[in-house]
Amino acid sequence: MPLDKQTQLYDPSKIRILVVDDEPSIVKFLEFGLRREGYAVQTAADGVEAIAKARDAMPHVCILDVMMPGPDGFEVCKMLKRMGHVAVILLTARDAIDDRVKGLMGGADDYVVKPFSFEELLARIHARVRSQFPQLLQQQEIGPFLIDDARKEIAFHGNPLKLSSTEYELLRYLVQNHGLVLSKAQILDHVWGYDFNGQDNIVEVYISALREKLGDRDRTLIRTLRGQGYRVDLP
């Protein structure tokens, strides 16, 4: 049964999943089920093929069998982790505690034992995406802010803010990068685009408008760092 979209909170078509298993029946089962859920899926039958496809596709999630010809799942997991940011879910019939510990110590993010429930695997994929790829979520709760990308809305302490499309993009960018100093140039590039030809004081104008809507008159939420830029400080 597909996950409820309100529970899922992200667009599965944006999630790249690599399924690696030397059992064709399992590969077909997972590929069919995950594609039906809307995920972008690639498959591999062994570790060598998995590494080659991972280099090209850069998956967000890899569902990885342990017992395979050539490099086993433990070795492939280590190589994947060295290549980039990928969530690895080991899928295996070996349920010994030592194997679980070996997999997790080798960098795996989760461990599912065969036979398994497809719904449970979906829930684990969802948990990995929420934990490791929050930028892909349609809803993100960050401190007192709730960012809803699907509705293009931001709530502050549970109260929806009345924002223009530009104010939404600016506040979203600031909040998602809270704690970091963002220069005017960075803000202009991200919110207005690289080809923006207007005055950079437009950033100050929009920051002022956001402070007004947030009740941030003492400038403790959106701070100005003279000569550097702006930083959102969350409690």
In terms of DSSP E residues, the strand content is 15-25%
> Can you identify the CATH superfamily of the largest domain?
Response regulator
Within the largest sheet, what's the order of strands?
A: 2-1-3-4-5
Task: List segments where confidence is low: pLDDT < 50 over at least 5 consecutive residues.
Answer: 1-8
Top-tier CATH class of the largest domain: Alpha Beta
Number of helices: 9
> Quaternary arrangement of the chains shown?
single chain
Roughly how much helix do the residues carry, as a percent range? 40-55%
Overall mean pLDDT score? Answer: 87
Shape: elongated
How many structural domains in the coordinates?
2
**CATH domain fold name of the largest domain:** Rossmann fold
How far apart the termini lie comes to: 39 Å
How is the biggest beta sheet arranged?
A: 5 strands, parallel
Number of strands: 11
| Derived structural class | alpha/beta
Q: What is the alpha-carbon Rg in Å?
A: 22 Å
CATH architecture of the largest domain: 3-Layer(aba) Sandwich
- Tell me the series of helices and strands, N- to C-terminal: HEHEHEHEHEHEEEEHHHEE
Organism: Alicyclobacillus vulcanalis
DNA-binding region: 137-234
Domain OmpR/PhoB-type: 137-234
Keywords: DNA-binding, Phosphoprotein, Transcription, Transcription regulation, Two-component regulatory system
Describe this structure in words.
It is built from nine helices and eleven strands. It has 235 residues and is an alpha/beta fold. The protein has two domains: 12-136, 3-Layer(aba) Sandwich (Rossmann fold); 140-232, Arc Repressor Mutant, subunit A (Orthogonal Bundle). It has a five-stranded parallel beta sheet, with helices on both faces. A four-stranded antiparallel beta sheet has the order 6-7-8-9, with helices on one face. The chain has a two-stranded antiparallel ribbon with strand order 10-11. Residues 137-234 bind DNA. InterPro entries: CheY-like_superfamily, OmpR/PhoB-type_DNA-bd, Sig_transdc_resp-reg_receiver, WalR-like, WH-like_DNA-bd_sf. One of its GO terms (biological process) is regulation of DNA-templated transcription.
